[in-house]
Amino acid sequence: MKKLINDPQAVVAETVDGFAAAHADLVVSSGDPETLFVSRAGGAVAGKVGLVSGGGSGHEPLHAGFVGRGMLDAAVPGAVFTSPTPDPIMAATKAADGGAGVLHIVKNYTGDVLNFETAAELAELEDITVKTVVVNDDVAVQDSLFTAGRRGVAGTVLVEKIAGAAAERGDDLDSVAAIATRVNENVRSMGVALTACTVPHAGKPSFDLDDDEIEIGIGIHGEPGRERIPSASADEITEQLLTAVAGDLQVASGDRVVLLVNGMGGTPASELYIVYRKARALLEERGAEVTRSLVGNYVTSLEMQGASITVLRLDEELLALYDAPVHTPALTWGA
Amino acid sequence: MKKLINDPQAVVAETVDGFAAAHADLVVSSGDPETLFVSRAGGAVAGKVGLVSGGGSGHEPLHAGFVGRGMLDAAVPGAVFTSPTPDPIMAATKAADGGAGVLHIVKNYTGDVLNFETAAELAELEDITVKTVVVNDDVAVQDSLFTAGRRGVAGTVLVEKIAGAAAERGDDLDSVAAIATRVNENVRSMGVALTACTVPHAGKPSFDLDDDEIEIGIGIHGEPGRERIPSASADEITEQLLTAVAGDLQVASGDRVVLLVNGMGGTPASELYIVYRKARALLEERGAEVTRSLVGNYVTSLEMQGASITVLRLDEELLALYDAPVHTPALTWGA
Fold first, then answer.
1. In a shared domain, residues B165 and B246
2. What Pfam families does this protein's entry cite (chains A, B) (predicted)?
3. Containing domain of residue A95, as a range?
4. Residue A309 belongs to what H/E stretch?
5. Within a domain: residue B283?
6. Could you tell me if A35 lies within 8 Å of chain B, comparing CB atoms?
7. Which of B155, B43, B48 minimizes the C-alpha distance to B133?
C-alpha cells in the first residue's frame, strides 16, 4: 500500500485539519476528535433551516466539501467507510440549528440511518426539531452489504444542493424536507469500477478484480454490483449504466435532466468526459434535454478507478433551486 | 490496460467533444480535428489582450478547463503527452485575437516551445502581435527528457489565472506579458509519484516503480525526478518537496504566498489535504503567511497517483489579480 498518509488511524483527523485550514473562509472544524464535524465559518444562520449530512470518510469531497452558503450547514465525517457515531452528529446538528429546525440528509446505509436516527432523538431532547431524508438513488441492486434497500450514492450531491437552496431562500423545515424528498424521487445512479481501492487502516484492496475485468453496479464502498464483465469500451459501459438509470427513472421524451458523471477518485478527467459524451447522446436519443451538467469527482471511493452516472429529472422549481448560488469548497457558482 | 475509453486514437477528440458539450455556457470547440482548439463561448473580446495556452493532453483540467472569463481565451490540446502542432495553435491565436495582440503561455518543453514559436511567426504574418512567456517552475531537475532547462508544471495555472486577470482589466500586451513573467519568476513547484500512468495509445505504464518505491521530483509526463526512495510518510515526503520548493524560491519570513497542492489525477482528495496540512505548517515555520490556497486536481498526469506542491510569492498586485473574478469550467470565483 502506497499512500500519501501518516498514521492510518489519523487520516480523517489530518484530512479535516488540512481541509479546514485550506478553506478557512468557508468552513470551520470542531477540532474535537470525539465530536468531529465541519460547519460553516459564520455559524448557524438565524431563522434558516439547518442542513446536516455525513457518513464514512473516503468519499471526498462528499460531504464536508459541500458545506457553505446555499448547501450544507454542517457535515460529519466518520472513519473511512464507517458511519459517524451519534455524538458528533448531535453536535453538528446543534451547531447547524438556527432555530428553524434541522434536516438530516442520510445516505441509505444501515449504520448511517441508525446513528442519524439516534442523534435526531438526542436533538429532540434539546428541543431541536429534526427531519430526515434518506437518499437511495443507486439502481444497481435492491439490497446490498450494509444496506436494506437501495444504496445512496452520487445523487446525494444533488439532494444537498437543491435542498440547500430551498433552505437558503427561507423555506420552512417541512418544505425543505419535501424538496429533498422530491429530488430523491427523481434521481437515479449507477456506477462501474475498473479497480478496487484500499482502506488505509485495512492495508489491502477491498476486493479483487482481474486485469481484464470490471464491476458493473459497484457500490461506493466496493460492495458488489450486478455483474463482473470483461473490460469493454467506454461507450459500451456507458450504455449499460445509462440504460439502467434512465430505464428505472423512466426518462421520457421532453424530460429536462441534470446529467452528473462522477469520478470514483482515480479516474482521469478525460475518461469522465468520454463517458459524459456518450451518456448525453443516449439521453438525447430518448428525447430528453440535458439541461445542466456536472463532470468531476463528487462522491469518490478513495483511489478507485471508475465512474458513475446520475440523472435527475428537473421541474421548473428544481431547476431554479439547482441554479441558485452556491459557495462551498467543492461547488461554487452564482453571485 | 483498463480505461474508460473507446479507440485510443480518439481519446482527445472525444474528450474535447464531451467537454465542450458539458460546458457549452463557457466554451466552444473548433470541432475541426486538423485544427482542434477550445475557446470562449462568446468569441474574442474586442480590445482585450488574448491569452492562448496549450500542450499535450493528459493533464486535464489544464489547459481547456481554464478557458473562460478572467483566464484563457483559447487552449490547444495536442495528442496525449504530445505537443500540438503549429496549425491549431495558429488557429487558436486567431480566434483569441481581439485586436490587442495575443499572449502565448507555454510550458517549457522543447516541442511546445518550438511549435508555439512557429505559430507566433505565422500569426505575425497575419498582423497579429504575439508575445510569449515560457513557464519553468519545476525545481526538481535542471534539464530533463524533452526539456532544456526546468520543466513547466502546476505553476502554469497561476500564470494563466493572474495574467488572465491582468488582460481582463485592460492591460496592454506588454503589461500582461510582464505580469505573466513576474508570476513565473515567483513560482516554484516539485512533485512526487507513487505510481506510473499509462498513455492510451502506448498501452503500458510510462515507467516502472516498485511496490515500495516512490519517485521524488517526477515530471508530469513521468520524466525522471531527483531520486527514487522507499515509500515514506506523507509528512516526510511533503518536507522533501516543500524544502526544495521554498529553498529555491528563498521564501523568507513575512512573505505572503499562494500554496497549491496539486493532485496528479489518481490521488484521493484526503491525501492532498494531508500534504497541504504539512506544507502549510512548514511554510508557517519559515514565517511565511499562506494567504491563498488551492487543493485539487489542476495539472494531472492521467491516472498517476502522487502530488505536487507549488508556492507563489505574492505582492499586492499579484494578490489582487489572483482574487479577481474567474469563470472557467475548472476554476470559478468572484462575481
1. no
2. Dak1
3. 8-185
4. strand A306-313
5. yes
6. no
7. B155
Contact B130, B124 (CB under 8 A): yes
Q: Report the C-alpha gap between B109 and B111 in whole angstroms.
A: 6
What per-residue confidence (pLDDT) applies to B299? 98
Chain A interface includes B332 (CB < 8 A): yes
Identify all chain A residues contacting B21, using CB atoms and an 8 Å cutoff.
276-277, 280, 290, 293
Q: Supply the pLDDT for residue A214.
A: 97
DSSP codes, B169-215: TT--HHHHHHHHHHHHHTEEEEEEESS--B-TTT-SBSS---TTEEE
| A332 lies in some domain | no
- Domain end: A185, A218, A247, which one? A185
Q: Does B2 touch chain A (CB under 8 A)?
A: yes
The Cα–Cα gap between A291 and A320 comes to 12
State pLDDT tens for residues A114-134: 999 999 999 999 999 999 999
Shared domain for B237 and B105, answered yes or no, is: no
List, as ranges, residues 191-210 from A with C-beta within 8 Å of B. 192, 194-195
Interval B250-270 mean pLDDT: 98
Rounded CA-CA distance A84/A77 in Å is 6
Range in A4-8, B94-98, B146-150 with the lowest mean pLDDT: B146-150
Element (H, E) at B22: helix B11-22
